[in-house]
Amino acid sequence: MSGDGGDIALSIDETNKLRISLGLKPLQVDGDVASGGGEPKERDADAEAEENYTEYRSKEKAQLERTAALDRIARSRNKRLLNAKLAGATLASDTLPDEGGAGADVDDPLAWVKRSRVRQHELAERRRKEQEEMDRQAEEQAKKEYVVSGVRVGHRAEDLVEAGEAILVLKDSTIEENEAEGDELVSNIMTEKERLARKADLAKKKPGYNPFETAADAGAGASRGILSQYDEEIDGVEKDSFVIGAGGRVAVEEERERRRDAAERARLGVGLTGRKEDLQYGKTGEIRDYMTKEEDEAAQTEATFKKTKKKSKKDRKARTRDEVDEGTGNDAVGDVDMAPPSGPVDSFAFSNATQDTSGTNFVDDEDLQAALARQRRLAARKRAREQAVAAPEDIARMIKREEEGGDTGESATTWAVDGDAEMGVVKDEDNEEGDEADPLVLSDTTEFVRNLPSVSVFQERQIAAERRRRAAELAVSARPGGAGGDVDMPAKEEEDEAIEEMDVDGRGRGGSADASDEDGDVGDVAARARMRKGGWTEAAEDGEIETKGSVLERIEEGGGREGTPDEDELAGIVEEPLVGSGLGAALTYLNSRGMLEKPTPELEERENLLRKRLQWAEDQKKKDARRKMEDLWRKEARKREEAKKKKGGGGGQQSYWEEEERAREEAMIERQRARELEDKFKDYKPVVNIEYTNEFGIKMDEKEAFKYLSHRFHGKGSGKQKIEKRLLKIQDKLKEEAASSSAPIGAVQKLQEATKRMGQPHIVLQVGNRGVAPVLPPVSGPSDPSKSGAAALSKPKKRKGDDPSGTGKKAKKG
Amino acid sequence: MIEVICNDRLGKKVRVKCNPDDTVGDLKKLIAAQTGTKPEKIVLKKWYNVYKDHITLADYEIHDGMNLELYYR
Prior knowledge:
The complex is a heterodimer of chains A (about 800) and B (about 70).
Chain A: E1 7-9, H1 12-22, H2 30-36, H3 38-86, H4 91-94, H5 109-143, E2 152-153, H6 157-163, E3 168-170, H7 175-181, E4 184-187, H8 188-204, H9 215-218, H10 231-235, E5 242-243, H11 252-268, H12 293-302, H13 309-326, H14 366-386, H15 392-404, H16 411-423, E6 425-426, E7 440-441, H17 444-451, H18 457-476, H19 484-500, H20 505-513, H21 520-533, H22 539-562, H23 566-571, H24 583-593, H25 601-648, H26 652-680, E8 692-693, E9 699-700, H27 702-714, H28 720-741, H29 747-758, E10 766-767, E11 770-771, H30 785-794, H31 807-813
Parallel strand pairs in A: 2-4
Antiparallel strand pairs in A: 2-5, 3-4, 6-7, 8-9, 10-11
Chain B: E1 2-7, E2 13-18, H1 24-35, E3 42-46, E4 49-50, E5 67-72
Parallel strand pairs in B: 1-5
Antiparallel strand pairs in B: 1-2, 3-4, 3-5
């Protein structure tokens, strides 16, 4: 092992040894190669290459020869096959298959011609036989019964005749159609023609209605009905068809007759889905609010149309069918119920039940129709019971009575009058006044006035007293027939119930609030409101009524508690509320006395803020608590889940999904929390009040504070003089403050005064151990107060409190 | 016989005599014997070509006097 330049290298021998130890073959040293035969090896290679080449050439040659031979073989086989196809009989030899020697007279044209003639004869014979056979069959077919008799043909017979010859096929229809209509024969060509014709018709865009059309223009349209252009849409396209009779005969004349008949019927309106309406009516007729007596009677006698929805439909259907069958001329009037009216014959004084409704089509709104019918019936029954009243005076009387009855008022009666009540001035007998001539006036103005808070508190009190008295009476007397107004209440109630559904609950509420007639005023308002609105009260009025009711109740309660006689109430003396009942009562008492000051706006503001802050804090606490709870729940849920999973083993995909779900959930919660945190300080309104104090604890204003801070920050204060000046100022201020704080006692002032009065710079408070009351001589002439004051302050002679405004002196003086 | 120089550029440079029909694995064994490292720890490279153990030097066209990079894994 030697290293030249740090290389590690082995000699060949050493390497060979190593190789042997490693199990490798020894090195091939160049010397060995030279001696062993490096060149012959090379020569060998050349020779081998030569050999290889020749070998390759020979192989290639052999391959070529082989392919050429194969090719040749294939070609010869092909030729043979083609020739084989050509073998067999030729056209000439084909004509005489029966003659054995095909090849014998192939080349003889004369023989061939002869043979072909014979063949032609044979063929003609065969064809004739077939023809005969077909004829025979056709005859047999004709002898059989005619199959198509009774089948409908979907065209007009005339058209078919015109067309001359038409191929009819069974119509292409669905199973349902086929079952409904049976088989039908149509001609495809004619159907197509009809379709085209219809299309062309539509393309023309004929105006549906020509107002200037005369009977001559219309031609055949003389029999056309009103708005006949819609007939097709309503009834569907009319199909012309006829039925093939027995033996395949068609009675064309009969068919025509039938069609004409149908057209006539259609013109008369039979069988149409809609009913023809006559637009002629008395346009010039006078419109009146109510019927005259004669009209009324006439209406009563003639018109009592009662029909229920259910019945009428069925009836009409059945009837129309009958009419169609019988061909009665009464077709146009489809709606009249000819059955005699059932129930009592009523006089319909002020309902429009007597109106002739036959011409009116209510059917489009059946609900309304039903409601109206019911209403009418009820009203009629009621009227019948109360005897007919037809005159307007009676109406007014009725209204009046209803008003008295308060809430027992019948909406059924009022709704019918609505129109009249507003504009009419109607006579009335006034029950309260007993004045027969006093008219009941209903106008916008009266309505307005009545709706004003007409019941004063005083009146209400009176009413309440009355009411209590009555209630007591009622309770005592077992007989419920005492006074007029409130007695027939229960009797009427059952009737009311029937009508209740039409009336809105406003009346019901009013009714529950009061039990007797003195609440008639309240009910009155309701009743009148109802009238004004046309029978259907709105909830707005209820509010008003209710408040009034509550006022009444309150007053009543007050009376009950105090137990004072009603006269006191009438006098308007209100007893002091008891303070002992609670803090609230005390407060109200004080408030009423004006003993409590009203808070200033600032105070209120501050309190508001404080309240808000408290609220905020409370909210936060609540939220925190909730959050904590939620966290707890979630944790528990998680724990439970994990336990379950551990038990269950857990599938890979599912657990992955769960993990994902949980991660998403957590993210959501986190986000929510962040949002909450954001929200938390939304309502947070702290009261910030920054105060600066200097080294003496004296408040500084903004400017001073800035100066102070600035000096502190820069470490460089004011100069000596300035500081002194400031200190002096502060001292002065302190002194001033002290003086002002003692102002209520005014010791300083008093001292000054005293000294001034005595003309001495001091006052004697004490002599020796004894206290001496200062002798205050009468005020001497005006002296220089500043001088004396200054003197008094600067040179106190006798013993005196050290502090000029001190407490000690004060005490002694007092 | 050819001689291949393997340099790890960390202070070891080995000249190995071997046959062209030796495999890289054999070469590694020889190198290992000369340097005293385990053959399986040796990686032979030429630029980014890592020589594989079962392929002969002739196939890699490693000729006499070529320099191979020697790394340790």
